Amino acid sequence: MSTSLQFAPAVAITGGAVLGICAAGKWLLTGRTLGISGGVKGWLTGDWKPWRLAFNGGLLAGGIVAGALAPAVFEAPPSTFTVARAALGGLLVGLGASLGNGCTSGHGICGNARLSPRSLAYTLLFMASGAAAATLTGTAAALGVADAAPQLALPPLGDPQLQKGAVLAALSVLSLVGLAAAAESLSRRAVALAAEAMCGFLFALGLTYTQMVRPAKVAAFLSPLSRCWDPSLMLTMGGALAVALPAFQFVKRSASAPAKPLAEECFLEPAASGIDARLVVGGLLFGAGWGLSGMCPGPALVSLVARLPPPPQVAAYCGAMAVGMAVDCAACGTLVCAPTRASKAEEKKA
């Protein structure tokens, strides 16, 4: 049975803006980049700090709520989309994200919002590699996407779907502004952890609203030579950057910007800055896995908990993604599947 897609520009842009609000809010409040793969990889390197638990917990909680509110979005992949394909995609994405130190959120949104040449190069690499992999292996067809142009949806302003997006965007802004105000009177550490959890939670809802949790929708975007090509993801990324870029540049360039985050001690810039072999290989591998599966770390983790039990393809993808990250960590000698002493100290402070 084929799946017909719908292209709703207003939904894609509005949902993208929610993702940008989350990225900007986390940066301004905690000084940390919103990166899903980095949030996962830390568990494999012994970096079990409380903020990581709060962010990942918020993301998964958001996935559970999203699954209850919009179960139809989390469709089960067809049998033509095999577990083996999903697992190979997850393995390549995990390995690539670890090598390149980021994914579609960390590099694609936050890194590009910082105007990082490294993130731009990684983004171009995974986009090109993803399109090549999806096109050459027929990912859209494997996911049952109909060989037809997506139906253009231009609903009026009073449409319920657009109202939901406006409410979600308003909720995101009000939640993070409220936390910023609370940082003046409450424990800054508590506010930072609440911000991590809230950003993860809202990010999961934003991914669901844009339907980027649907592998079929992503695969259609990565199939530019097909009649089913769907530009929704491009508008979602654009909406995210339209919000995140001014926020990141304000912090980096404005004399009136705060010297440190509202709830932490400093802004944490990525240590790596150059375009090296690890970045290039990582971008190519990440894109190949993305194109094979139509999934990247954030949407996959949200989908993992939105339907219980999860589809075997999603479970296989997430498990293989963790293995891919672990392989690179083991090769670098950083694989530590237990909290380090520093992380334990952080937990006691919290």
UniProtKB/TrEMBL annotation:
Keywords, ordered alphabetically: Cell inner membrane, Cell membrane, Membrane, Transmembrane, Transmembrane helix, Transport
UniProt-annotated location(s): Cell inner membrane
Keyword Transmembrane: yes
InterPro entries registered for this protein in UniProt: DUF6691, Sulf_transp_TsuA/YedE
GO terms for cellular component: plasma membrane
Main location: membrane
Transmembrane residue ranges: 6-29, 50-74, 120-145, 165-183, 190-212, 232-251, 279-302, 314-338
Membrane topology, as annotated: Multi-pass membrane protein
Pfam families per the UniProt record, alphabetical: DUF6691, Sulf_transp
Name of the protein in question: Uncharacterized protein
Organism annotation: Raphidocelis subcapitata
